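Working notes for the structural subgroup meeting. M.R. asked for a predicted model of this chain before we commit to crystallization trials. I am recording the input and output together here so anyone reviewing the notebook later can reproduce the run.

Input as submitted:
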Amino acid sequence: MDTDSSSFAARIGAIVSLLLAAVVFVPALVVTAPGTGVGDYYASGPLGVSIVGFLALLGVVVFLAGAQERSDPVTLSGIALVSGLAMLLFSLLWAVSIDQTLLFSFPAEYAWMENHRWAVVAVALVVAATGGGYARTVLNP
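Returned structure, recorded in C-alpha cell form:
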C-alpha cells in the first residue's frame, strides 16, 4: 500500500466531509428569522437531512484516522466508502422529498435556500467519490 497516496486521499476526504457538514448546517446558523420553518426543512422527507450532517462529522473522524494510520486502513476505507454512499443516498432522498411549499416559503433574503438541497447532494457526491478514491488507494497500491 502506498501510504503517501492513501494518506493524501484520506486528508482530502476529511476536508470534503467537513465541508459537507458545514453546508448541511448553514441554514440552521444563518436563517435567523422567527417562523421560517428551518426545523421543518431539516425534518423533511423520511429521515431528514441531519443524518447527513452527522455522518459527515463521523466521516471527518474516519478519514483522519486513516490519514494518521490509527486503525486498519482497509476497515477505515470500507467505512468511508459505505458512509459516503449512505450520505449521498440520504441527501438525495431528502432533496427530492422536500415539500415545495415549504421550500419556497422562506423570505426573499433566503432565496438561496431553493438551491441549498442540491448543494448538499453535490458535496455528498464528492464525499462518496473521495471515499471510493481512498478505498482504491488502500486496496490497489
